[in-house]
Structure formats: C-alpha cells, structure tokens
Amino acid sequence: MRRPATWWKTGVGLVLTALMLFPAYWMVNVSFTRDQDMRKTPPNWFPVHGTLAGYRAVLDQQLPYLGTSLLVSLGTVAVTLVIAAPAGYSLARLRPAGGGTLSFLLLVAQMIPGIIMAMGFYAIYLTLGVLNTVGGLIVGDATIAVPFGVLVFQAFMSGIPAEITQAATVDGAGPVRAFWSVVLPVSRNATITVALFAFLWAWSDFVFASTLDGGGRLRPITLGIYQYIGNNNQQWNAIMATAVVASIPAAALLVVAQRYIAAGVSAGAVKD
Amino acid sequence: MPAATRTAAGAGVARTATPAPVRHRRRAPGYRAQRWVAWAFLLPLVAFLLAFYAYPLYRNLDLSLRNYTVRSFVQGGAPFTGLANYRRVIDDPTFAPALLHTAVFTAASLVFQFGIGLALAVFFHQHFRLSATLRALFLVPWLLPLIVSSSTWAWMLNSEAGVVNSVLRAVGGDPVNWLTSPHWSLVSVTVANVWIGIPFNLVLLYSGLQGISPQLYEAAALDGAGGWQRFWRLTFPLLRPVSAITLLLGLVYTLKVLDVIWVMTRGGPADSSTTFATWAYRLGFGSVLPRFGPAAAVGNLLIVAALGFGLVYIRFQRRQGGQA
What we know:
The structure holds two protein chains of two kinds. Chain A is mainly alpha-helical. Chain A is built from twelve helices and no strands. Chain A has a single domain (54-270), classed as Orthogonal Bundle (MetI-like fold). Helix content of chain A is 76%, strand content 0%. The longest helix of chain A is centred in the first third of the chain and has 42 residues, at 53-94. The two termini of chain A are 31 Å apart. The longest helix of chain B is centred in the N-terminal third of the chain and has 34 residues, at 31-64. Chain B is globular and about 75 Å long. The interface between A and B is large, with 117 and 105 residues.
C-alpha cells in the first residue's frame, strides 16, 4: 500500500548514501589528481586530468608494507582460529565448571584499550628482544580478535542441534573426533566470520603496529601511510592511492563477507 | 581502537545469528573425564589470556608504580615509587584539559552517532527500492582502516587545499583552520569519529527495529496515531534495550579512540584535542624521551573508566537476559 510513495524514498536514500560515502569518493578522486591540481580552488570534482603517478608510487614504495600486512593478517587469522575454535567448542558443548567466568572475562577483555595492552607488550617485548618482529606483532594483533572469536564460536556451536553430535558419540567418537569431524565442518560460517574479522582488524591495526613494530624492517601498510603523512610528504595523490589500496580488503569484505554473515544468520534461524 | 567498535557490532551480528544456547544434560558417569577434556580444549585460550592479557596488564601496572628512566626500562632495577606517577599525572597541566576533552569527545560522538544512526535505521526500515543495497553501502566507513579514514579527513579539512574550505569559500563563508586552530581541532576529530561510528549504530539499531512486531504499528495506525507519535510512543520505548546497549558499547569504545585523533591532530594544537588515550600514547611513544611511568598511569586511569562503564554494560546485559 506504500508502493506509490517509495520512489522519493529511494531518492532520499541515494542522496544520503552519496553524502555518507563522499569522503571515500574523495579519497579515490585525490588519488588520481595531478600534483599541480592538488591545491587548486575550486578543486577538480572529478579526476578529469587523472594521473596514475600516485599508484606508481605505491608500486615503487609500498609493496613491502602490503606484503607484511598480508603476512601479519594471515598469521593473526591462524592464531585466532587455533585458539578460539576449540575454546568455543568447549564452552558451548562440554560446558566445564568455570566456563561462565571465562566468558565473562572475555567480555571484559574486549573493553581494555589497545594503547594499554600495547604499553605492556612493549615492555615485555623489549626484555625478550622481540620488538619489530612479525611474530610479535601477530601475537599483539591476535589479542584484538581472540575474545571476539571465542564468543562467536561459542554462540554458533551452541546452536548446532544436539542430535548431530549425539549421532557421532553413539558411533563411538570421543569429544576430539566429534569436534574435528562433526562440529568444526558444520561451523564453517562461524569460522569464515571470525577469520574475516580477524584479518580485517589485523590489517587495519595501527596501535600495535606503531608501538611494537615501529622500527622494524618489515612494517605493515598502516605504518606506510602514517610515515607518508609524518614525513610531511606533500604527494597527497600517493598517500591517497596507498589508502585506496589499503582499503581493498575492506571492500572485498563488504562484497564477500556480507554473504557469509547473512548465511550465518539464516543458518541460525532455520534451526529454531 | 578500531577493532573495538567493530567487535561490538560484529558480536551483535553474531549474537542475532544464533539461537539461544541449549543446555545439555551432564552425563553422570563420564563426567569427571569429560571435565578434563573440556579444560584441555580451553587450554590454549587460558594460556593465551594469561600470557598475552594478564601479563601485559601486570607489566603496565608495574610500570605505573615505578620511576622508570629509559635506562632502567631496558636494564631493570627502577625504584618503587608507589602512586607518585599518578600524583604527577593528576598535577600535570594537561590533566584537566584531557579529562574535559575525553568527556566532550565521548559525549558528542555518542549523541550524534546515536541520533543519526537511529534516524537512518528508521528510514531504512521502510523497505523502499534499493534500501538493502544502500544500507550495505553505509557500512563502508565502518570497514575502512581507521588510518585511511583519518588521513582522508585530514586532507579534506586541510586549511589551504581541503575540499571543505573550498565549499565554504564557494558559498561565501570564511575558511576555517579545522585542524590547526585550537577552537576547531576537537570539533574536527569529533566529526570524523561520528562519521566512522554511524554505521555501527545503524546496524545495531536496525536489528533492534526488526525485532518490533509490525502488528503493533498497524494497531497504532488504526488508533489514529501519526508517524511522529508512533515513533515517540512506540518505536523509541520498544527500542530502549537495544539503544542502551548501543550507547554503552559506544561509550566504552569511544573512550579508547586513538588513531583518529592522533593521525588528524596529534592531540594538538596545544593539547586542544588531547584525550586520555592520545595523552598516554604521546607520553609513552610520541616523543624522543619516553616517560613510561606516567604513560602507564594515564593508561590505567583510562582502563578504570572503561571497565567501570563496561561493568554497567555487562550488568545491564545480564538483566536483559534474565528477563527474556
């Protein structure tokens, strides 16, 4: 009954979305702008004399940073999954005494500001001599994702019908087999959700990168951008081109992960 | 911290994704063995939490209670000075402004993120053509790495070449030194932070709206309630549990925002946009001569605030859970 009135809502929605996404558009526009047009008034609203100089600078200077970010993010995903999946299984299905306290601690852990963790890590890493190492940064980044990962796995695995695991138990499978060959394959969507968020957070991390890996040989892309700005670099097309490239995983997540998160939602709903 | 805000909404998504946990009967005979197995599965997590949460927090507490120099930081043996670092931090001329800015930044961010997020959630809840696609696009600011968003805002707000000042000039206004004037720096970082936070509020509030039965609206419409009345008398009260959680999560997470402010203004000029998070970062890592003791003290004050509000949130959540 509202149908005739919806076209103007679509119009308003389009305008609002355009306003909201303007900074993202501007980043792309500036990344293609020539140096001599950079301080023009009024600015070029579209990249009319577009240049790829910014992206050439990315290829020349930022590839090692991107590689490091990829390595660190994949490492963080691996660490997070290895710790979170069994823990989520235990809390959801085996329900040990004290599990409730542990879940509570995980909630609290998510509220601790990163800068405080980073300071403690810095002191420890300095003593151990692992500052500016990829492994050290992976562990730091994993602290962001592990509590979240456990809670997601716990919520998801609680929703798996008991009949599925019972069937395995009747067949003589112990908890380890039930976890590995029944629960884990069924929890594919939870695994993908946790992996994607762990990847994105590690990829975007600045606090741990700048404190624990500020002077290393292998630095992540967030520091690449930060050092571009810090050096009073006036090549804003290069800075924004790096920003565009650094946003690719986020854009991919929007396209790919939406589907998986939606799949998780419907998988949960179907079971009721 | 970026992840924090994202954690909240991520968990929100995940929470709605699964039905309530099913309680399993505990099997009496094998129970003892099963308990050991359960803790064996938890072992990696417990080890991780002890080594990489508890121990760094302990080191941080230790840092704040000793008088560290760069030398004793490396070699050890710094003298125990009790609460001297805390006293020094509280007497510091930066303390009062940092406290004020943290409060203003957090409050203003919350009010605008929530207000705009709620308006958008109500708008998108009407299901017009393209509404799902446009709502998905609204997630972009939330998914971008914070350093990307903040450097883009920094360039947009640049005094000479920024697009915001170009627009101001075009409409006949005077350009503003958004990032370099002490009157505007806090406003600028707040605007950027609100932009980043809107999607998170939109996602949580939208899922809250979906939980409200459409029949209630039909009944209200039959009773002759107008759109405005329906919102204030129906939507707003029914959305209160979700709103409270959204605001509390926003509060805890805005307290720890660092990257946005640090990249845009570094807390300056003259501390005009310094919050506790940027102050702790600057003391510990932002200068040639790090002052780890005071930095850790500022950090621990921040943690007390965050955990205080966090516990309010958890209590609230438990109460909600108890009612359901």
